[in-house]
Amino acid sequence: MEFMGRDVVSIKDFSGEEIEHILDITKKMHPVAEGEKKSNILEGKVLASLFYEPSTRTRLSFESAMLRLGGSTIGFAEPDNTSFSKGETMADTIKMAESYADVIVLRHPNEGAAKLASQFSSKPVINAGDGAGQHPTQTLLDLYTIKSEKGKIKDINVVLVGDLKYGRTVHSLSYVLALFGANLTFVAPNLMQMPQEIINNLKEMGKTPALNESLYETISDADVLYVTRIQKERFPDDEEYLKVAGLYKVDKALLKNAKENLIVMHPLPRVDEIAFEVDSTQHAVYFKQAKNGVMVRMALLGLLLIPDFDGGVI
Fold first, then answer.
1. Could you tell me the domains of the chain?
2. Rounded to two decimals, what is the model's pTM?
């Protein structure tokens, strides 16, 4: 397996064996991510963080991962304060960034932007989310969280609920869960259901998902409940958004019908789809899920920037 210098545009860039290797390396990152050990393996390396869309967890966890491993970060989180506002193309911005940094992390509102950026850069480009398209590092941390909490992925029942049409996290996650043998249920109204192209791909993989509009009908069989926000910013008009806003809510009343060991996940930020009362239950793992993002991104940066990286952090 060769990771050095590779772009990370889609989770499909990796084989199942490569994904398992990334998860194994991730586990080794725990002591450094927790500050129990110090590491300078990326000393002298620079990460360019180019965020054309708002982000809290993804941007900060990438920067934390780089700093924890002894590297440095540059970049922007408000494109209007850059030459973008003067009409500079993304291609020129990428060419500029690659001359300053060793790896580029890009978030952009346009689907396919990361793929395009990778064609302009000789340095690794990591997709930190491209519109309603892909978010591969979120997928990796989600998979790591599920495997850590449940002990396995094969044959577990995963229910994904909410904005499955525009939610890039569930698009990537569905594919990789099917790859590792999980059973999938998609809960959404027809307006927000998973794109047919993705459903067809899953069928070709031998994992036909169950479709439902009712969360109450599916909660009792779930081992993992993956909740997504209804993303107002992705909707073409407010009228379409208002038809589905607030349609699903996870609270203690719903969880009375759930398995005792059900875990509730969310890529965050949440609005009102998970009640605050759920935070104190044994089901809530979404903040741990976000924390796992640092370890996953540490592992990935090490693999992309260090030849034959095996997780050694001293």
1. 11-134+293-305 (3.40.50.1370), 136-290 (3.40.50.1370)
2. 0.90
